[in-house]
Protein: aldehyde dehydrogenase (NAD(+))
Organism: Aspergillus campestris
Amino acid sequence: MSSLTQTINAPNGVSYQQPTGLFINNEWVPSSTGQKLPSINPATEEEITSVHAATAQDVDKAVRAARAAFEGDEWQSVVGTARGKLMLKVADLVESQQHVLATIEALDNGKPYSQALGDIEEVFSVFRYYGGWADKTYGQTIETGRHKFTYTVREPIGVCGQIIPWNYPLGMAAWKLGPALACGNTVVIKAAEQTPLSILYFANILVEAGFPPGVVNIINGYGSEAGSALVQHPEVDKVAFTGSTPTGKQIMRLASDTMKNITLETGGKSPLVIFDDAQIPNAVKWAHYGVMGNMGQICTATSRIFVHEKIFDAFARAFKQYVAKTQVIGCPFDEKTYQGPQVSKAQFEKILEYGRIAEQEGATILAGGKIAESRPNDKGFFVEPTIISDAQPHMRVYKEEIFGPFAVLVKFSTETEAIRLANGTEYGLAAAVCTSDITRAHRVANKLKAGMVWINSSNNSDFRVPFGGVKQSGIGRELGQAGLEAYSQLKSVHLNLQLTEQI
Ligand code: ADP
């Protein structure tokens, strides 16, 4: 046991015990081969620790634990109200340990500590929200005539394999665990290679709250090994994934052999359309938040910003100034920092590469495109916030998801053109529109091909509201009441009231 925890001392003075094993059946175990993966601090490029990385054999063990828990009396006898109580306890424990959890996220992911605290608030809010739903997911009685009594029962799906990304590590885990547990499923959840730490700390909270063994099993591991073993395991009934579109497609293929229920939340290149009647300061504020927040590592980032030609120059000037003023780059634990490092060397290099591509493609670089000169100690995966103008629809910077603080400004002249450009993408996750004309706002919202539309804001999401995409941005919805549908299924029961007495 002692070899499966390590004391971590964070730069903000927080010292805590970091679990490093696999969490299966409420116990900490090493991986079957002893293989590990390193957790790198992206602000310093130094290794924080390394954690056990599951093999296919470990995944099998975790899935069997989840299956046994799902079929067993201990979890089956926990009725919705009691499940809700367990979840509320988790919420309280997360809230009381929010400083440690936010510290871990800042250390492991690189996001500023203040923003990490916001992530943790989302975690306990989501657990409270779905804890409240746990005894409110029932079926219906259906009128089918005098000779029959017919009803539906809303049942859990079974064992859920959940695969989460690195941009909001514990936040994304909460979005998946909340509805899964509220509906009475059991889970094997895998964190992303880049951010393995916070979910391991969270595992101990589940035990403290009183979750029975096997209900939630938490593993780290490589996507191509542990992730793909989880997706293909015949005892997994449902797969929920958040990550890139290419990986989402691969997961769909892998899950098809056993025809699993799937929920996918994948990539985007979301548009923000700013009309000439928009309030420019408001548009600037949200344009900035929508693509520069969380180091631009947001699947719903409104990274293509379409601006009416009448206000284009004024907007571009104000946006550039606002970004320069707000986007303070620095150590995640420095209170002044707005932008920490990108999560990994691979992401850092990818964003810098797009800076070079923009130049080669002939776009105008209004700001950024390079390594941040102000990065502390000349180390860490810090990039300059980048603003590109004169981008054309055929250019890679215009079409491809970059997943960094990288905005592409595009001029338009009519509403029809703006809608055509906004929809001219394989993605359909989110969209935003800024205008003072309420009729236009709704008309445009109606025509935008996206799972979510913000009017006069961007990326202003809420855990009570469904989240998800259309086209190649995903399948199904998370959050809100709709999130429960992804983790439950209906059974229809037909009771014959007219028994035959003679044949
Ligand atoms: P990125 O490209 O940004 O690293 P991915 O979409 O590849 O993002 O990864 C998101 C999550 O999907 C991670 O937890 C990763 O381990 C997992 N993953 C990657 N490849 C696979 C795969 N083939 N099967 C299952 N999970 C995978």
